Amino acid sequence: MRKIYASIDIGSDTFKFLVGEAQKNNINVLAATSIKSKGIRKGLIVDSNLAVNSVRDGIKIINDELGFEIKKVIVNVPEYNVRFMYVTGKVNVNGIIETEHVNKVIKDSVYNKLDKDYELVTVVPLDFIIDSNEGNEIPVGKECKVLEIKGIMISVPKKNIYSVISVLSGAGLDVVDITVSGLADYYQVRTPKLDKKIGAIINLGHETTNVSIFNNGKIMNTETIQLGGVNIENDIAYVFGTNIVDARKIKEKFAVCNKRFTNLNDTYELVNNVGDTVKLNQFEVSEVVQSRMSEILKLAKKQITLLTKKDIDYIVITGGLTEIKSFKNLVYEILGKDVIIYLMDEIGIRDNKYTTAMGMIKAFHDKMKVRGKEYSLVSQEDCEILLTPNINNNINRKEKTGVSKIFKGFIRNKEEKYE
Q: How many whole angstroms separate alpha carbon 416 and alpha carbon 252?
């Protein structure tokens, strides 16, 4: 069975669309694109109609590239006011552990633990206990009398979830799983060494910066800082009297994060807001960029100490801002030289903006392995199209099905969808 997954990373600056196929321990990229976000502000949906149009535009590009329609996706939801709770559950098996037993023990672990205004995102298993024996990562197929789980329940306010699901539904897509960006980021940057340590991931986004804490590969906490790349662009636009479009170009193509690494002879010519042609010096531009970037990094460092009292073994930084010139030099000054600046090197998506989208697919694939389930978001008929694309003309595509009764049972039953 070909296991193909599709994810949509809803960002404030861009929507990232990714389709990948799981082969052994790798995800091979089949299609990827990003388009400008509309109707989103600081990760929250403020205009659902504009957001729906953005999703439709992006998924059409993916469909045209693949030759068939993607109908099911994984999506991330806003992490504002996210909650983490340690939970346990227990079920009787008296035989071979099957997928349904794993689903039942997860359901038991969250029973009556959700506040009325919150919905379940997922349960991150810390350990499965088989007849009092700990240390079982994948319990399916083993024999036991009693199966227990220790896990972290992640929940977010209902409005965070329903607004996203409504947009995807409006675009004709069925949401099969939801996650938070911090969890997805770890699945992309993880290594066997990081799985045994305590650390943090800082994702420098367009309007916000997410800081997440991990212990032995499990997410423990996350927080959102209301600063990102757009603040740097606004600073440049204000100081040098230019528009936000030119400010972004200056940030991406001319500015340097650390003014000590600027070239005093480098200049950037532009027409300012009053119509005058001016030449900007790289040093003075970089002073503005360094000031704001330093603020963001220092706030992220402070946030790490607020999220955990334990000593941190590593910090991984990702996100679009990592690609500004001399970024690592500024990071080393503020956070130390042990920081890992993550660089996306997946074939087909060598761009840090796809970190979360790819991580979402890897996290979902891992979830299916834990449940012992073979699952694909793409039908076998459509899989055949990938092998023999010339048969496209002979296939009558079905209309998009949308999300059926999504608000009545999606979140409540999401752990049962893969039975």
A: 45
pLDDT for 13:
87
Do you know the residue count of the chain? 419
Residue 395 reports pLDDT greater than 70: no
Question: Are residues 231 and 88 located together in one domain of the fold?
Answer: no
What's the pLDDT score for residue 415?
46
**Token couple for 194:** 């990081």
Question: What is the distance between the alpha carbons of residues 409 and 199, in angstroms, rounded to a whole number?
Answer: 36
Short-list 375, 279, 334, 326, CA closest to 21 = 375
Contacts of 403 (CB under 8 A, 6+ apart): 165, 168, 169, 173, 174, 175, 410
Give the mean pLDDT of 156-184: 93
CB atoms within 10 A of CB 253: 10
Q: Which structural domain range is residue 223 located in?
A: 193-343
Same domain, 219 and 129: no
Closest to 216 (Cα-Cα) out of 199, 201, 228, 203: 199
Longest dimension (CA), the chain: 80
* Residue range 259-318, pLDDT digits in tens: 999 888 889 999 989 889 999 999 999 999 999 999 999 999 999 999 999 999 999 999
> Is 224 in the same domain as 330?
yes
pTM to 2 decimal places: 0.86
Rounded CA-CA distance 217/194 in Å is: 7
pLDDT band at 409 (very low <50, low <70, confident <90, very high): very low
- Do 277 and 198 lie in a common domain? yes
State whether residue 153 is helix, strand or coil.
strand
CA distance 68 to 56: 14
The identity of residue 252, as a single letter, is E
Q: What is the CATH number of the domain that holds 219?
A: 3.30.420.40
